[in-house]
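Internal ticket - ligand job 188, zinc ion:
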Amino acid sequence: MGWAEVIGEKTSEKIPYTKFETGSTMIRVLDNEPYSYWSHWLNKQQTSVACLKKDCPICGVIAQMKANKETPIYTSSQRHAVRIWNYTTNQMEIMIQGKNFFSQLLTLHKEIGDITTYDIKVVRKGQGTDTTYTLLPSAPKEFDTNDKTIVDVDMEKQFAPPTREEMLLLMEGLTWAEINGNEETVEQ
Ligand SMILES: [Zn+2]
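stdout (structure tokens):
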């Protein structure tokens, strides 16, 4: 909100989310601490949605199904996000990963030093649920921001959950496009 949006400075361009291809991708992490949030996976729409935390209807269904000793139709997982520079796509991106990936980053952060002070080679192997990532740190080197567009991201806003009403529509199986009447989607 605000004048920056009116003149198109802030939200004119969407920040892309990182998609690692099989093989190696060199990145520079730009935030030395992740933004963490809980998300639910919607099988039908093949998308995830941020948990509402308070009175979340999906959490409600999960709790009830667990209480009935049924396998919940939704899953919850904690996601972590940081801004990165992707040398392959040559752009700033938001990288979202789970515990496994970020545990490796934390190890580098503790053992090698601040993760924003060196490039990291991300090696992706496998597909789907068999996907594994190996992180290989490079020698510390100042990040050259020349010719690079780096912007701040309000992560709270970026990963804000939908309204309760929207969440209920998603649970009924509607897609974001159907709810909003456009193609606006947030991949979480
Ligand atoms: Zn929830």
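Auto-summary: The longest strand covers residues 75-86. The two ends are 22 Å apart (CA to CA).
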